[in-house]
Amino acid sequence: VSLYLCGRLDEAEREHWRACLQQALPEESILTVLDAQTREQVDVAVVANPAPGSLQGLPQLRLIQSLWAGVDRLLSDASLPEDIPLARMVDPAMNQAMAETALWAVLSLQRGFFEYARQQQQACWRVLPQRRADELHVSVLGLGQMGAATATRLAEQGYRVHAWRTRDTGAIPGLPASVVVHAGAQALPALAARSEILINLLPLTAATRGLLNAELLAALPAGAALVNLARGAHLVESDLIAALDSGHISQAVLDVFAVEPLPGQHPFWRHPRVSLLPHAAAQTDPRSAAAVVAANVRRLRQDQPLRHLVDRRRGY
Amino acid sequence: VSLYLCGRLDEAEREHWRACLQQALPEESILTVLDAQTREQVDVAVVANPAPGSLQGLPQLRLIQSLWAGVDRLLSDASLPEDIPLARMVDPAMNQAMAETALWAVLSLQRGFFEYARQQQQACWRVLPQRRADELHVSVLGLGQMGAATATRLAEQGYRVHAWRTRDTGAIPGLPASVVVHAGAQALPALAARSEILINLLPLTAATRGLLNAELLAALPAGAALVNLARGAHLVESDLIAALDSGHISQAVLDVFAVEPLPGQHPFWRHPRVSLLPHAAAQTDPRSAAAVVAANVRRLRQDQPLRHLVDRRRGY
Fold it and tell me: Count of A–B CB contacts within 8 Å?
C-alpha cells in the first residue's frame, strides 16, 4: 500500500511536503507520480486541490486527506470518488496563523493604523482618537477551528468578542467564557448591528455563499469594517465596493476573492479603503500538518476512527 | 490649596482633562488660569509639557505631576523649580496602548503585512513565506512600565523575547519567565546580533541619546527591522536612512522624530520602507490617568510617600 501526494503544488512545495510526510511516516511509501502498477497500490490520497479526475482509477483508495482546511473546491469536483472518507486539514500552526492575521487586522482598525498609512501618503501629521480594546465590539462568523482560535485570541487581548455559527452544535472546548456565542440565521441581524468589526471565518457552503451582501453590510453600524479571511464567494464584491464608496463601511481587509489570483484590473487593488492580501492569511505549515496527516494514516492502518472527516452533504 | 492644570493642550483636551480630574478629585479646586491671588494657593501643578517658566512664582508648590510618561522635555526647562518632587505618569491604559502598537508592528513584520501593502500598490499577487511566532527573535530596549508591558504582551503571543536595560535594578514583577533580560552597555552588541526586530522603549537620557546609530544598526542581522516608539533623539535619522537604503534594515516603524511634527519635506514621509505614526503609539488616557493623579494628590495631602517620582539626575 502507498500514499499518493498530489495537487496544485510547485516542485519545491511538493518536495517539502514529501520530505515532511516521509519524516512523519517513515514506514510508508509516498508516491508523487503513478504508473499502471502503483495505481493499484494507493490507499491514501494526500491532496492539495488536485486537478479534477486525479483520484479516479485508484481501486484500493480508502482515505482522501486534504492538506488544506477548506474543501469547497475539492467537493466541487464531480468525479471525486464517492463513499471514500474525506478528511480536512486541521493544523494548529494554521489556526494560529489565522488568529494572527485577524488580530493584526483588528489592531490596525482599533488604533487607526490603516488611516495613519493613508495620512503618511499625504504627509499628514494628525493624531486620531485612541480607543481601548475593551471598548471595541468584534464579531467572528464561524466557530470551527479557525474561528474558535481567532475568537479566543481576540478575547485574550481584551476585545468584546461575539461569535456566530449557522447552528448550535454544543459548547466549544476551550472558548473563553467572555466570548458570547450566537447561532442561526435569525440571530445574525442583531449581531451585525453591534459589530464594529465583522470577521468572516465560515466554511463555504450553499448556506453561506453570498452571506456578505448588501443586506448584511447595511445591518452593520456606520463606519464598521469587514474582514474576509474565508472564501471569496462569501462576499458579493460589488455590494462591498458600494458600501465602501458610500462611507458606510470604513475599511475592508480581504484575503480571498471570487477570482484568484485577483485580476490586475480589479478595483480592490487600488481602492484606498481596501487592504488586500494574496490568500495568505493562514497557510498550512508542512512541519506541523505532516504530523496531522500521519496521525490519520496510522488510525486508518489500525482501524481506528478517522479524524476531521467532512460531511459531504453539509459541505465541511 | 489648589491644583493648577497647565501645558500644551487644546481647549477640548484641557476641558476633558479638567472634567476627569475633577471627577477623580471632587474635593479639590482645579484651576486652569492663575491670577495674583490664586498663584499663592497652588500646591500641585498637573502639567502637560508647559511652556518654560510656567511653574515659576508658585510659592506653595509641593508637587509637579506630569500627565505624560516622558519627562525629558520637562527636565530641559532650566527654570523648572528645583527641589520640588516631580512625578511621571504611569497610566495602565497607556502601557496597554504601547503594547498594542508594538504587537501590531511585530505582527506586521512577522507576517509580511508591510510587504503585502507594497505589493498591493503594484497589483502584485505573491504569497510570502509564513513564519511562526516562536521562530522570531524580538528585542525590547527599556524595561520601564511600557517596556515591561510590551515584552510581556509579546511573550504571551509566543515570540522569543529578549529585553535590555541600561543597568540591572532587580527583578521586574510580573515579567514572564520566558523573557530573557540583559543589562548594561557591554551586553548590547550580542543582543543586537540576534534581534530580527528591535523595539526601542527607553527613556531619553544623556546615556541613551543617539543610541540607535550606525554602529547599533550594523550590529543587527541583515534584514532586521527597527521599531522606535520612545523618542526621536534616540535615533540618528540619517544613519537609519542609510541602513534602509543599503537594504541592511528591511523596515522601520517610527512614531517619534527629532523634529515633531515631522517636516513635510522629510524623507521618512515617502520612504517605501518606513511606516510612520504621528507620535500616536500610546497616548495617556484621561479616564484612567486622572485616577493616577488623584492617588498621588491624596498621598501628598496625607503625607504618604509619593509614587513614580523622577530622579532628575538620572533623567527619568
Answer: 101
ipTM: 0.94
Q: Do B133 and A278 touch (CB under 8 A)?
A: no
pTM: 0.95
| Interface touch A285/B132, C-beta < 8 Å | yes
DSSP state of B272: T
Check residue B304 and report its DSSP letter: P
Q: Any catalytic annotation for residue B279?
A: yes
Compute the distance between CA of residue A173 and CA of residue A41 in angstroms, rounded to an integer: 39
Closest CA–CA distance from residue A247 to any residue of chain B (Å): 21
Closest CA to A292 of A102, A145, A82: A145
Q: pLDDT digit of tens for each residue in chain B (316 aa)?
A: 999 999 999 999 999 999 999 999 999 999 999 999 999 999 999 999 999 999 999 999 999 999 999 999 999 999 999 999 999 999 999 999 999 999 999 999 999 999 999 999 999 999 999 999 999 999 999 999 999 999 999 999 999 999 999 999 999 999 999 999 999 999 999 999 999 999 999 999 999 999 999 999 999 999 999 999 999 999 999 999 999 999 999 999 999 999 999 999 999 999 999 999 999 999 999 999 999 999 999 999 999 999 999 999 998 8
